[in-house]
Write a structure and sequence with these properties.
The protein has about 270 residues and is mainly alpha-helical. The chain is built from twelve helices and four strands. The strands form two sheets. The protein has a two-stranded antiparallel ribbon. It has a two-stranded antiparallel ribbon with strand order 3-4. Helix 10 packs antiparallel against helix 11. The two termini are about 40 Å apart. About 20% of the residues have low confidence.
Amino acid sequence: MLSRTTQQGQDQDPSLAFLNRLIDRITDDEHYAQLLAECVSRGAGDRFFALIDDPDDRQDLDDGWLDECAGGRGSVPLALALLAGAFGSGHALPSLDSASLGGAGPFVAWPRAQADGLRPGWQDHALPLIRAFEGLALEAYLDPVGIATIGYGTIRYADGQPVQLGDRISREQAERMLADAIADRYAPALLAAIPPARSYSAEQQAALISFTYNVGVGALQRSSLRRRLLAGEDPLQVIAAELPRWSRGDGRELPGLVRRRAAEVDLFLRGRYG
């Protein structure tokens, strides 16, 4: 449990005030805490620092205070002390698990990571890949085939309403829409359409989640890719042959889709992507 820290006998140190503001936001905003947790699990120090940057630009964290925290002195929660150790250095955050955080396990757990049928760690591959190719738009725009899009490729909100030009969202809303769409729709639809995918590796599941998120559930269900996998053909051969076929939009080949299919094939076959 994260708790506010106090300083007795004098005005509160600005660094402690900064930390208390951060704790208040983590406590009040579950999604914000989840975003920070994902940065920790991926070692994304720059992204973590950007997320906690003081919106009022009032106080930077003091390096001496961080050193003291990292040394275990004072009442600052260990989890935040460990995270703070990367601030100001430009270094990646350390790879932490719940045991490293002295009981603060919920702070570093992505709640959808153990979704039924998905391998632990799938999100570490699926989310960066999807973000990289979808791009982030906080204001609605028309995609290459003329569909109003927002966030990370979202064309419909959770209530089914289509995105409209003029719509605006926050970065936090975009992250939540992406996570919810995968957890509530695309991952379950993938596993329902292709039950053998339950036995695939986290990287292979991530590649197919990215593919399904891009082409849509209906296209996956009607695809020859699905038919061939259900027929028992070698998944490596099927993916290498079928995914590159999905590189066209509005009747023409799109370079972005060519690159995305290549990245998904690379992730499925070799467990990595460029």
